[in-house]
Amino acid sequence: MTKSSVSGHTESRDPHVLEWLTGMVSAACVLAMIGWIGVQAIRQRDDAPDLSVRVVRQEARSGGYQVEFEVSNAASATASQVLVRGELLDGDAVVETVETTLDYVPMQSKATGGVIFRHDPAGRTVRIGAVGYTDP
Question: Is Membrane given among the entry's keywords (predicted)?
């Protein structure tokens, strides 16, 4: 029979300097994250969403005339079920009105979408704006 050695451990009783350094860096990262989250929680206000809409592109499609838009939310609150209304104007007269709903527009972010008009917007004024939202 063969005897097995009991003292064959490669671990030493005293931790290596690299282990201490790794532990300290990890602890510093965790404390920094906790501090950053705490500061954000204190500084952030519960504002209402601040939505603005701009037209990105207009082009003819087989189903009509597509107008793509971008909704920006400058506030620190998310808006959900954002109702966007597009109006096609000829002078002061409204030729056509279309609506679409965006699922949500995150805080300090942007979302894109599009509306489709049946009438050609060329030579007419396109007015697009957010007209409503719900709190998530």
Answer: yes
Whichever domain contains 58, its CATH number is: 2.60.40.10
Q: Is residue 98 part of a domain?
A: yes
CA dihedral 99, 100, 106, 107 (to 10 degrees): 0
Distances (CA, A) of 73 to 9, 13, 78: 60, 57, 8
Q: What's the pLDDT tens digit per position in 55-114?
A: 999 999 988 999 999 999 998 889 999 999 999 999 999 999 999 999 999 989 999 999
* Position 126 in a domain: yes
Question: Are 71 and 107 in the same domain?
Answer: yes
Q: Is the dihedral of CA 58, 50, 136, 40 positive or negative?
A: positive
Mean confidence (pLDDT) of the chain: 89
- d(C-alpha 126, C-alpha 114), whole Å: 12
Helices and strands per DSSP (H, E), number in the chain: 1, 6
The proportion of the chain whose per-residue pLDDT surpasses 70, expressed as a percent, equals 89
Determine the Cα–Cα distance for residues 66 and 118; give it in Å rounded to an integer.
9
pLDDT of residue 11: 64
